[in-house]
Design brief:
The protein has a domain of 122 residues: GMP Synthetase, Chain A, domain 3. With 654 residues, the protein is α/β, with parallel strands linked by helices. Helices cover 31% and strands 22% of the residues. The radius of gyration is 24 Å and the shape is globular. The protein has an eight-stranded mixed beta sheet, sandwiched between helices. Strands 5-4-17-16-18-19-20 form a seven-stranded mixed beta sheet, with helices on both faces. Strands 21-22-24-25 form a four-stranded antiparallel beta sheet. Strand 16, helix 13 and strand 17 form a beta-alpha-beta unit. The structure holds 5'-O-[(S)-butoxy(hydroxy)phosphoryl]adenosine. One of its GO terms (molecular function) is metal ion binding. This is Acetyl-coenzyme A synthetase.
Amino acid sequence: MTTAAQQGANVYPPNAETVARAHVDADKYTKMYEASIKDSDAFWGEQGKRIDWIKPYSQVKDVSYNFGSVGINWYADGTLNVSANCLDRHLKARGDQTAIIWEPDDPNDAAQHITYAELHRRTCRMANILESMGVRKGDRVVIYLPMIPEAAYAMLACARIGAIHSIVFAGFSPDALAARVNGCDAKVVITADEAPRGGRKTALKSNADAALLHTKDSVKCLVVKRTGGQTTWVSGRDYDYNEMALEAGDYCAPAEMNAEDPLFILYTSGSTGQPKGVVHTTGGYLVYAAMTHEITFDYHDGDVYWCTADVGWVTGHSYIVYGPLANGATTLMFEGVPTYPDASRFWQVCEKHKVNQFYTAPTALRALMGQGNEWVEKCDLSDLRTLGTVGEPINPEAWNWYNDVVGGGRCPIVDTWWQTETGGHLMTPLPGAHAMKPGSAMKPFFGIEPVVLDPQSGVEINGNGVEGVLCIKDSWPGQMRTVWGDHERFEKTYFSDYKGYYFTGDGCRRDEDGDYWITGRVDDVINVSGHRMGTAEVESALVAHAAVAEAAVVGYPHEIKGQGIYCYVTLMNDREPSDDLLKELRVWVRTEIGPIASPDVIQWAPGLPKTRSGKIMRRILRKIAENDFGSLGDTSTLADPSVVEDLIENRAGK
Ligand code: WT7
């Protein structure tokens, strides 16, 4: 059989200029990859030198994937400070270089250029403020901020004093915020008066006020002034950042941290239960974030790099803040949205700041693609060199548009597959090394051994042209270490179904050329606009409403969002379906979780398809949501097969 690559169909090799410039070309990739697998200690021992250590490590990897005793340690006897790596070590050579370009929501407001020297000062002041509020090494600090430079100061300040930050995306509701503050027993919440986004303002401080009603009384709140909007002030609990920053000292000594001390906790959705706190540690995480940032995007000194994510997600942690700053890069931080004031905003910002590497999500590309090419074409994008996507599979139409219209056919597209859990990219084409295929994550990064397993037997499927569940054979430095406060859940989620492997939760296909294609989640996690959502979370929000007896939530294909949220709702006996109730439930879910969890479709379901033992058959619900009634499979094991007919008959939007 001839392969796609042999036929030359839909394969996009890098141009000569890209190859010549690239840190890694095809040859180097092959050699380095082989070396990374053959002797991973030697490989990662060398890569560890990318960052500065206070006390150098003598051991590299110490990992057990054995269920019951999973332990992941990298550079375990080394000590370092992450903020010193992102700041202090650059001061001599690049104190006056811009570290962060901040582009505000309103294009008529001035952008800020924050130098490494300034970022160092600001971080130190924030660190001193936190210390004055009683934050000590190992304490948790929740950050609930808009995309403003203070979010970076706060992250780096925590890292500086050894506090563990947990960022909560500013789009989450007070309830979700409270759950996370309580989940990690945070001492301080850092927030802002308001978050401007797309010309609208979210009242962050009042959300925080509402959340803090449901936390310990001792939790303090540090408030950054962003808009100057009115806020309620609780004296003794609330601290004024801007006022304190005037007094705070410009220097704070970086704490000496062990490589395996936690750097941050980031809550993410799973297939069951409430979100879990993914824990990343300092040494290995930073090595991996720095290395992938440099190589995946082919970042070179002096480049301007822009990742459009929010720091509330792992992408913002690794690829707005830690990776770029560890590399002494200029990283752009954008407060706004792609379509404000109009659909040209991304490209205006690229032109204005002469962006070289641009990293965004397919959902944004799909939305912008629909607005027409003129929004892109009127901007000068000649500085763009590498384009990246992340968060969900990219469909070929969006890929081609990105390649042709945005990249002018000159820029490699790195389709980076990774997860909150992985800390950094695990699979991606590299700009100068791989011929890209639209929609394929292509090749593993150095040190990563992907395996395709048979979902039932758990046996590795070898060879090419195969499909199954995606696991990773061995560890890498950026891997999560545990679930905060629940190591058992960590082992159960990632190491129990397929023993001896890290289970990703994704399905994948290895094509005839040996290139990887992510086929989507194999669990009850859905991906809405690149945001990860547990269907169980939406269900539990729905059943918390007094009118709802039962709910089942599945994903369905959505043109812009990738996946939409489809809810089947069974009402209490005394309640009748109505448009008002439908609206009420939508608002309810938004308040329980946040706008990102807003149901796209709610279908009234007099009954749900269950097995005789009472298990909801989601497979059938997914098919109905997908409008694919022909392949419902065997329904004979259902307790009451007639409910399926009713659901089909009354499918929402039919
Ligand atoms: C899930 C992880 C990684 C940072 C943002 C999302 C899906 C991620 C891709 C990609 C296809 C992708 C997977 C993964 N995903 N990147 N390039 N192609 N699918 O992080 O919220 O932890 O979600 O996003 O399903 O498991 P996350």
